[in-house]
């Protein structure tokens, strides 16, 4: 009887986990423009959104903060640097780093630091590299790594490191694959992972890891799904995630696919997609194991909604058995 009960419990837990769904959250205030290419990052219990491109194709310099505890938004003072789209950012402890992208004046190669304690922005040393938009921006071992992306001279495969402690840049080994823009990327275990994206008509599903200690790249297994470009990505609890974007024809996929990458096995697992079809150039941030998927573009329309998904739902088997199931007959011997 005990064995049968354990089997029932396992089935219920499995159903609970695989039935995990996305939940819609509060939209930003009316002052907020729907947009694609938002810069997104997390500090503490807050998700931040800066800049982007609105429905009228105007680059923005506004700045907002989402609080998980109250499911509410707050408008912050504008980002003081040039308005921009196609830019990216990353948080490190209590600070965030954002730069690159482009606006009506062309591509950018600046870098800015946001201090969440003083709520101030500081311009840092600009990259000595070619200005670009759609790059990868990843943190590892005290450095911000920036590379790939589009430039006025074509798609890039170069790779650069910004040292936070010294406010200096250094050039690193190029990605061994083709130059590309709009890649997917994340940092795990003090290493940098990057791949996908596209150049011209080619949309890729290759994937690579960069080791800062050896200044070298290693090609990993190809992604098992279709090639993709212009989605969003994040890491959480030692795993990497890619979410939404365009498929291998540079069109929207039927669902907003989400995949989890395990660096130990160099393997991918498909997770529950966000509602609706996939979106071009959305954003995301993670607060307490919950990912928040925000904004993006579909067929000429920009969005301002926000959806949340718990990456590690807690399950209490005893509670599920006691509150959700009636066992009959009780007691039982062979049939339950």
Short note summarizing the structure:
With about 325 residues, the chain is mainly β.
Description of the structure:
- The protein has 336 residues and is mainly beta.
- Helices cover 7% and strands 43% of the residues.
- The protein contains 2 helices and 33 strands.
- It has helices at residues 2-18, 317-324; strands at residues 23-24, 35-36, 39-43, 46-54, 59-67, 72-76, 88-92, 95-99, 102-103, 106-107, 111-115, 120-123, 136-140, 143-147, 150-151, 154-155, 159-163, 168-172, 184-188, 191-195, 198-199, 202-203, 207-211, 216-219, 232-236, 239-243, 256-262, 267-274, 283-287, 290-294, 297-298, 301-302, 306-310.
- A hairpin with a 4-residue loop joins strand 17 (159-163) and strand 18 (168-172).
- It is globular, with a radius of gyration of 21 Å.
- The model is unreliable at 1-18 and 315-325 (pLDDT under 50).
């Amino acid at each position: 009887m005990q064995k049968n009960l354990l089997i029932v419990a396992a089935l219920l837990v499995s159903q609970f986990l695989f039935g995990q769904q996305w939940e819609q959250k509060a939209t930003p205030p009316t002052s907020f423009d729907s947009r694609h290419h938002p810069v997104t990052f997390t500090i503490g219990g807050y998700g931040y959104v800066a800049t982007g491109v609105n429905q009228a194709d105007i680059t923005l310099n506004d700045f907002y903060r989402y609080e998980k505890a109250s499911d509410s938004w707050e408008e912050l003072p504008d980002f003081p640097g040039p308005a921009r789209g196609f830019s990216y950012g990353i948080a490190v402890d209590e600070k965030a780093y954002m730069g690159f992208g482009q606006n009506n004046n062309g591509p950018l190669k600046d870098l800015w630091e946001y201090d969440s304690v003083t709520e101030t922005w500081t311009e840092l040393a600009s990259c000595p590299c070619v200005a670009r938009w759609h790059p990868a921006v990843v943190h590892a071992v005290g450095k911000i790594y920036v590379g790939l992306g589009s430039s006025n001279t074509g798609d890039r495969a170069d790779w650069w490191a910004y040292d936070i402690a010294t406010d200096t840049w250094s050039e690193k080994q190029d990605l061994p694959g083709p130059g590309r823009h709009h890649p997917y990327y994340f940092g795990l275990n003090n290493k940098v992972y990057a791949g996908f994206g596209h150049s011209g008509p080619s949309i890729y599903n290759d994937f690579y890891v960069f080791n800062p200690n050896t200044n070298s790249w290693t090609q990993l297994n190809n992604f098992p799904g279709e090639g993709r470009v212009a989605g969003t990505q994040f890491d959480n609890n030692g795993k990497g995630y890619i979410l939404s974007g365009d498929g291998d024809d540079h069109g929207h996929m039927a669902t907003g696919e989400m995949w989890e990458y395990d660096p130990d096995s160099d393997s991918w697992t498909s997770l529950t997609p966000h509602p609706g079809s996939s979106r071009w150039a959305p954003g995301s941030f993670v607060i307490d194991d919950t990912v928040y998927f925000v904004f993006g573009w579909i067929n000429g329309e920009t969005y301002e909604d926000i959806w949340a998904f718990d990456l590690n739902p807690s399950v209490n088997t005893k509670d599920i058995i006691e509150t959700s199931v009636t066992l009959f007959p009780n007691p039982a011997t062979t049939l339950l």
